[in-house]
Amino acid sequence: MSASHPYDFDLFVIGGGSAGVRLARISATHGAKVGIAEARFWGGTCVNVGCVPKKIMVQAAEYGAWAEDAAAFGWKNLDKPEHDWPTLVRVRDMEVARLSGIYSRMLAGVGAEVFECYAQFVGPHEVRLGERVVSAARIVIAVGGTPVRPEIPGADLALISDDLFTLKERPRRVLIVGGGYIGCEFSALLHGLGSEVTLAFRQSLPLRGFDHEIREMAAESLAADGITVLPGETPVAITLEGETRVTRMASGRVVESDIVLFATGRKPATRGLNLDAAGINCREGAAIAVDDDHATNIPHIYAIGDVTDRVNLTPMATAVGHAMADSFFGLKPRRASYENVPKAVFTAPPIASVGLSEEEAALRGPAEIYTTRFTPMRHTITRRAGRKTLMKLVVEAGTGVILGAHMMGEDAPEMMQGVAVAVVNGLTKAQFDATIGIHPTAAEEWVTMRVATRRVGEGAAKAA
Ligand code: NDP
C-alpha cells in the first residue's frame, strides 16, 4: 500500500470456481495486482463436484450399454459385463485432482496472490482472510451456489449431489428427488452403472424450462430405459428402518431405497460472507443483486456466476469473468451475452437446446415448428429401448430466422454447439436448407427438415 496506491490489490476475487479463476487469471494477465481466496477447492463446483466428475461417470455408464449393444453387431463373450465402482472412483478422482491443481497453478503462474481460506467482508474495501485483513480497489464475489434440501423430517438422511462423489460403492437402490438437471442426469448415470433408480418429481414432467416435447420425450426415455419415473410426487418425510431409507410422499406412496438423493436445486452461497459489513443488497433467495455490468449496489463491489442466480452454467460464468477482466483492465469494455445460451442435460441419450422453446416462441408470434423423430441407425440394429432421437427447429414465420433448436438423442450436446453458432448469429431456415448434409449422420437432419410439422402462435400475433 502507498499514497499513490491506497489498496493492497487492484482486484480481490472471493471464490476460486469457474467465474472467479477466469476473472483473476485474465485480470493478472492484463497487469492488475490480483488476490483471490478459495476455502474449499480450486475450480469450484464444476471441476470438483459437478460437470467434470459427473461427465466421467456418464461416460462410464455409456460403456455398459455399448458392451451390451455390441452383441447385436456380432461381438461375442460380452454378455456379462461387470462394473468395478472403486476403479471408476479412482480414475475420476485422479482427473479431478489434476484439473483442480491446474487451476491453482495457473493463478500462481500469472502472479495472482492465492489465499486458501474463507474470506469475509469487514468493510466496503476490506476483506478478512484468517488473521489478515486486505484491501482492494475492486472486490468481486464469485462464491457460487450450494445444494438445497427440502425442510422435511428426516431430510438429513438424504444425500446431496456433492455426497454422490464420495460413495465408496455403488448404491443398490436409489431414490432421486427432483426432476431438474441433476435429478435426470444422476438417474441416468446411476441406472447405467447398475443401480435400481426411482426418480420422483413434483411436476407432471421433468426439466421445467425446457421445450415441452423434449420434456415429454425425456420422461418416456428415462422410463423406457428402466428407471422408475414418478411424476407428481413430493416427499414429506424420510425415516430409517434398519439400513433402508423409507420416503413417504404427499400422495401416500412409500419408496424404499438405500440412498435418497435430493436434487432439489441450488442456492447462492452467501452465508458467512458478512455482506452487511460492506452494505451489499441481496435479492429474494439470497442471490446478490447486480446490474447489467454485474455491479452490486456498492459501485466497486461486483458479483458473478451462480451467486447472482442468472444463468447458472459454467461457460456463462467464465464468459462473464473474462468480459469483466477485459473491461476492468484490458481497455476493452464488453459484456457477455445472456441471450441464446446453449444447454445440455447428460441423460442417456442426452438433451441439448438453444434459444426459444416452441411454447416461448408461440407467445411472441407466429412460428413454424419443424420436427423429426427417428431411431438412430445404431439402434435399428441393437433395438435398445429408450434411444429414439427427436430434433426440432423453431422458426420465426415470415423472416425464417431460427429462434430455437432442441434435441434429445445421441451426441445432442456435441451437435448443438455448432447449431448454437447459427442461432446466436440469426441464421435462417433457408440458410440451413442450403447447407449440404453429411451422410450418413443424424446431424444431417438439421439441414433436411423440409416441411413444417405445425404452425403456432397465430393468437399471439392477433393479440399484439
Ligand atoms: P434444478 O433447478 O434444475 O431442478 C430442481 C428440481 O427440484 C426441480 O424438479 C424442482 O421442481 C425440484 N424441487 C425444488 N424444490 C423442491 C422441493 N422442496 N420438493 C420437491 N422438489 C423440489 O436444480 P438441480 O439441483 O437439478 O441443479 C441445479 C443447477 O445446477 C441447475 O439449475 C443448473 O443451473 C446447474 N446444473 C447444470 C448442469 C448441466 O449444465 N448439464 C448439470 C447439473 C446442474 P420444480 O420444477 O417444480 O421447481
UniProtKB/TrEMBL annotation:
Its EC number is 1.8.1.7. Residues 341-449 form the Pyridine nucleotide-disulphide oxidoreductase dimerisation domain. FAD binds at residues 55, 306. One of its GO terms (biological process) is cell redox homeostasis. One of its GO terms (cellular component) is cytosol. Keywords: Disulfide bond, FAD, Flavoprotein, NAD, Nucleotide-binding, Oxidoreductase, Redox-active center. Disulfide bonds join 46-51. Residues 9-319 form the FAD/NAD(P)-binding domain. One of its GO terms (molecular function) is glutathione-disulfide reductase (NADPH) activity. NAD(+) binds at residues 178-185, 265. Binds 1 FAD per subunit. Coiled coil: none annotated. Gene3D superfamilies: 3.30.390.30, FAD/NAD(P)-binding domain. Pfam families: Pyr_redox_2, Pyr_redox_dim. The active site is at 439 (proton acceptor). This is Glutathione reductase (NADPH). The lineage of its organism: Bacteria, Pseudomonadati, Pseudomonadota, Alphaproteobacteria, Acetobacterales.
